[in-house]
């Protein structure tokens, strides 16, 4: 496989970070999958892309000397210097715009928002100067930029720090919106996003940063990339389809385990890419199982689930045996109290209940 | 009017002589009184540069930047003497004249076409402000970059985009510079490095700062010999917007090769600059961020050009950004839909007497740089060019229906699929970079 050849060639001349060297050594000794946190996955992806292409640079608040607000950009300042890892003042509109201007001129910026809630200060640049420019200039000016950062609810951070922006950005033509779940997703999608010639909004999740996932040798290879616009079937099933993205994939998998004990075989789809949405995978799955539960963390109205429901009704109406169940966060700004917060975000029990309703087995 | 430790605001006009001597001493700082600001006849030729106070910030040294207008004034007074005293040569004069005539005639033609129904939507005309565009943009190279607002037709023309392409774009035809997809407010040209054309005020400023950032990045990371400069044009209303201040800060902080050009025409749509701004002297906002702030008479193309030379030169040498406030005026309304009732006719009449084209014509004729016939020939040539541009635009086809879905993404097939039909990321050549991984 090409990946392995490249790895062998690279290892002779590599002055890679200690992380990569550690991976290579481990790979030599272990035949089974290694564990990697999402944080390390993102860090290694950024590291490799910056190493391969000098046009890639990282810009954001606290990405340099503080090693990243969530330590995603740890070690990059030492490795690449302050010209390529740039600490900015607290000016989202300003530095997002600067990133877009640099992208117009051929560089490949990776703009970090401390959380996507702060991207609202810069949303004019994400939508109006990044997403729309290729169209407005009739193809003359493309914007190979990546806007990344944590999205969605964390733990107890209150209403202004907890909103999920997947639906907002995914409704805009000209943007690509990605939401990884596992380390494999994180690595592959971030690399694909950085190499992509279009603006990409990369929605991570703060609570997933510390979670470990098994990664195969192929994932650790420096040329590993995932295609944009293709969903992954995390778990095959035949009774009900559950679509999810980001942290909710984990919850869906847990719910699927519980459902399996009750005799319901759930198919879990990890969307990975919100725009473009992998409508064919979703529809194929619904045509197989005939029931659909859409799962997301964000607000219900005009959300990702609404779009999936519409697309399934348009394309696979005759195949549906039950109405589509839509699970989303509560239609309120995120409360602070822990018990209220738990009620405002979908939990595994909610998913199980909804799947049972879809299967007409609710008690 | 030198000051020592703390800057003092001087109210009232400064006489020209003391200005010149004061300018020579680096440690002095001088401020212009407010009375000379709004185009009063006797004082409208003043031009000042402002140093950041050296004593208050230890390590940051101030740079005296702009050529003061007394140099210009002196040359004007001695206009009857030899050619070497003049600010422009004959060729430069004709180039400037032609560019301004092109801008004016184009905008007039736009108005005609709009009222005849060939153009639609928002059209913002630049009549009266040509001196700023011509004065700055004619000093640039092709690789230098211009970022503008919705009042961008003339910036695109000055930078070199052919008139016929701009006219077709306005007509919404497929031969326009953006194939009809951008429109009046979104003039992009990769070839001529016109990065738009932004409808939101202040939106272009961070983008321009990013383009300047790229010049610096190319120098520092790619180690190229890059001295490309970016000009950001925007209006007085924009100077109250947050993005403006954010970019002044970052441009000065990182010493980016950019010139912020404020086209202060005193009016947002119907909102006078004086009614909306706590301190109407925009040039003062530059030193607050550590860059020189310059005020220049934007109705005089020669003065603008002198200031521009200094500012662009500063940026090219790597000394950082400059904020240039050009006091100018738009003869027409904010857009063609604006009835323009709020502006005082006396004010309009006053500025009409300061028409930049008339002023340049007078200068050229008085200094015998060209004859009346030469100038008439230029005007005729521009008229013909515009007639041809309108014809071209009229005869061009409208965009094909298939063009609706094109160019949403740079990816030709979208979604990470390369031209050979396979996913881009699977292509082995895709990861070939210049560094070893």
Automatic annotation (TrEMBL), chain A:
Catalysed reaction equations from the record: N(6)-[(R)-lipoyl]-L-lysyl-[protein] + pyruvate + H(+) = N(6)-[(R)-S(8)-acetyldihydrolipoyl]-L-lysyl-[protein] + CO2
One GO molecular-function entry: pyruvate dehydrogenase (acetyl-transferring) activity
Function summary: The pyruvate dehydrogenase complex catalyzes the overall conversion of pyruvate to acetyl-CoA and CO(2). It contains multiple copies of three enzymatic components: pyruvate dehydrogenase (E1), dihydrolipoamide acetyltransferase (E2) and lipoamide dehydrogenase (E3).
Cofactor(s) for this UniProt protein: thiamine diphosphate
Originating species: Erythranthe guttata (Yellow monkey flower)
Broad enzyme group: oxidoreductase
PANTHER family tied to this protein: DEHYDROGENASE RELATED, PYRUVATE DEHYDROGENASE E1 COMPONENT SUBUNIT BETA-1, MITOCHONDRIAL
Subcellular locations according to the entry: Mitochondrion matrix
InterPro entries per the UniProt record, alphabetical: PDHB_mito-type (IPR027110), THDP-binding (IPR029061), Transketo_C/PFOR_II (IPR009014), Transketolase-like_Pyr-bd (IPR005475), Transketolase_C (IPR033248)
GO terms, biological process: pyruvate decarboxylation to acetyl-CoA
One GO CC term, this protein: mitochondrial matrix
Listed name of the protein: Pyruvate dehydrogenase E1 component subunit beta
Record keywords: Metal-binding, Mitochondrion, Oxidoreductase, Potassium, Pyruvate, Thiamine pyrophosphate, Transit peptide
Matches recorded under NCBIfam families: PRK09212.1 (NF006667), PRK11892.1 (NF008854)
Residues in Transketolase-like pyrimidine-binding domain copies: 36-211
Keyword Flavoprotein: no
EC number, UniProt record: 1.2.4.1
Keyword Oxidoreductase: yes
Subunit structure: Tetramer of 2 alpha and 2 beta subunits.
TrEMBL record, chain B:
Record has Transcription regulation as a keyword: no
Organism the protein comes from: Erythranthe guttata (Yellow monkey flower)
Listed GO biological process terms: pyruvate decarboxylation to acetyl-CoA
Transmembrane region(s): none
Subunit structure: Tetramer of 2 alpha and 2 beta subunits.
Domain of life of the native organism: Eukaryota
UniProt keywords, alphabetically: Coiled coil, Oxidoreductase, Pyruvate, Thiamine pyrophosphate
Protein name: Pyruvate dehydrogenase E1 component subunit alpha
EC id: 1.2.4.1
Recorded coiled-coil stretches: 368-395
Xref: Pfam families: E1_dh
Function: The pyruvate dehydrogenase complex catalyzes the overall conversion of pyruvate to acetyl-CoA and CO(2). It contains multiple copies of three enzymatic components: pyruvate dehydrogenase (E1), dihydrolipoamide acetyltransferase (E2) and lipoamide dehydrogenase (E3).
Ranges where the Dehydrogenase E1 component domain occurs: 99-399
Cofactor: thiamine diphosphate
Alphabetical list of InterPro entries matching this protein: DH_E1, PDH_E1_Alpha_Subunit, Pyrv_DH_E1_asu_subgrp-y, THDP-binding
Keyword Oxidoreductase annotated: yes
CDD domains, per the entry: TPP_E1_PDC_ADC_BCADC (cd02000)
Catalytically driven reaction(s): N(6)-[(R)-lipoyl]-L-lysyl-[protein] + pyruvate + H(+) = N(6)-[(R)-S(8)-acetyldihydrolipoyl]-L-lysyl-[protein] + CO2
Alphabetized GO MF terms: pyruvate dehydrogenase (acetyl-transferring) activity
């Amino acid at each position: 496989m090409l990946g392995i050849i490249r790895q062998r060639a690279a290892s002779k001349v590599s002055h890679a970070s200690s992380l990569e060297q550690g991976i290579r050594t481990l790979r030599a000794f272990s035949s089974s999958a290694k564990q990697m946190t999402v944080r390390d996955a993102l860090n290694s992806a950024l590291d490799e892309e910056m190493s391969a292409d000098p046009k890639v640079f990282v810009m954001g608040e606290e990405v340099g000397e503080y090693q990243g607000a969530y330590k995603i950009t740890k070690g990059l300042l030492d490795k690449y210097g302050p010209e390529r890892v740039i600490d900015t003042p607290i000016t989202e509109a300003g530095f997002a715009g600067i990133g877009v201007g640099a992208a117009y001129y051929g560089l490949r910026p990776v703009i970090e928002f401390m959380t996507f809630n702060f991207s609202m200060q810069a949303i004019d640049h994400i939508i109006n100067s990044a997403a729309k420019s290729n169209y407005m200039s009739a193809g003359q000016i493309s914007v190979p930029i990546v806007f990344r950062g944590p999205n969605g609810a964390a733990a107890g951070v209150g209403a202004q720090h907890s909103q999920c922006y997947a639906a907002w950005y995914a409704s805009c033509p000209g943007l690509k919106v990605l939401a990884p779940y596992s380390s494999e997703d994180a690595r592959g999608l971030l690399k694909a996003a950085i190499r992509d010639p279009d603006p990409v909004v990369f929605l991570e999740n703060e609570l997933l940063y510390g979670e470990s996932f098994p990664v195969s040798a192929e994932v650790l290879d420096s040329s590993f990339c995932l295609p944009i616009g293709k969903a992954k079937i995390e778990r095959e099933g035949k009774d009900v389809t559950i679509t999810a993205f980001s942290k909710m994939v984990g919850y869906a998998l847990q719910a699927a385990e519980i459902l399996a004990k009750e005799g319901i075989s759930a198919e879990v789809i990890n969307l990975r890419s919100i725009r473009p949405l992998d409508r064919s995978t979703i529809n194929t799955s619904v045509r197989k199982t005939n029931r659909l539960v859409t799962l997301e963390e964000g607000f219900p109205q005009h959300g990702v689930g609404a779009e999936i429901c519409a697309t399934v009704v348009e394309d696979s109406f005759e195949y549906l045996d039950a109405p589509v169940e839509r699970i989303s966060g509560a239609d309120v700004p995120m409360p602070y109290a822990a018990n209220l917060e738990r009620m405002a975000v979908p939990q595994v029990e909610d998913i199980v209940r909804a799947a049972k309703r879809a299967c007409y087995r609710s008690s | 009017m030198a000051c020592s430790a703390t800057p003092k605001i001087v109210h009232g006009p400064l006489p020209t002589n003391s200005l010149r001597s004061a300018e020579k001493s680096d440690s002095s700082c001088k401020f212009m009184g407010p009375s000379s600001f709004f185009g009063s006849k006797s004082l409208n030729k003043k031009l000042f540069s402002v140093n950041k106070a050296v004593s208050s910030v230890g390590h940051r040294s101030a740079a005296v930047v702009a050529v003061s207008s007394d140099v210009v004034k002196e040359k004007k007074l001695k206009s009857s003497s030899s050619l070497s005293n003049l600010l422009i040569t004959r060729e430069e004069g004709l180039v400037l004249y032609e560019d301004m005539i092109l801008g004016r005639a184009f905008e007039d033609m736009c108005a005609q076409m709009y009222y005849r129904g060939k153009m639609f939507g928002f059209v913002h005309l630049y009549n009266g402000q040509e001196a700023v565009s011509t004065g700055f943009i004619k000093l640039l190279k092709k690789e230098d970059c211009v970022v503008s607002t919705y009042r961008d037709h003339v910036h695109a023309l000055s930078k070199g985009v052919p008139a016929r392409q701009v006219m077709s774009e306005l007509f919404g035809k497929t031969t326009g510079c953006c194939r009809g997809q951008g429109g009046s407010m979104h003039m992009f040209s990769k070839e001529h490095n016109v990065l738009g054309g932004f409808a939101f005020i202040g939106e272009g400023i961070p983008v321009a700062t990013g383009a300047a950032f790229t010049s610096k990045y190319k120098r520092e990371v790619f180690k190229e010999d890059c001295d490309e400069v970016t000009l950001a044009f925007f209006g007085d209303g924009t100077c109250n917007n947050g993005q403006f201040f954010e970019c002044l800060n970052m441009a000065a902080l990182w010493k980016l090769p950019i010139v912020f050009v404020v086209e202060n025409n005193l009016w947002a749509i119907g909102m006078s600059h004086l009614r909306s701004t706590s301190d109407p002297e925009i040039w003062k906002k530059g030193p607050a961020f550590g860059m020189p702030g310059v005020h220049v008479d934007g109705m005089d193309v020669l003065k603008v050009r002198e200031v521009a030379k200094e500012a662009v030169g500063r940026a090219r040498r790597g000394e950082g950004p400059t904020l240039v406030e050009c006091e100018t005026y738009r003869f027409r309304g904010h857009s063609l839909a604006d009835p323009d009732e709020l502006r005082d006719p006396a004010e309009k009449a006053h500025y009409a007497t300061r028409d930049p084209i008339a002023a340049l014509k007078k200068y050229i004729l008085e200094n015998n740089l060209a004859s009346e016939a030469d100038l008439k020939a230029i005007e005729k040539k521009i008229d013909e060019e515009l007639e041809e541009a309108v014809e071209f635009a009229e005869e061009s086809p409208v965009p094909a229906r298939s063009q609706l879905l094109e160019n949403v993404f740079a990816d030709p097939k979208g979604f990470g699929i390369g031209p050979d039909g396979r996913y881009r990321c699977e292509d082995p050549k895709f990861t070939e970079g210049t560094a070893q991984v």
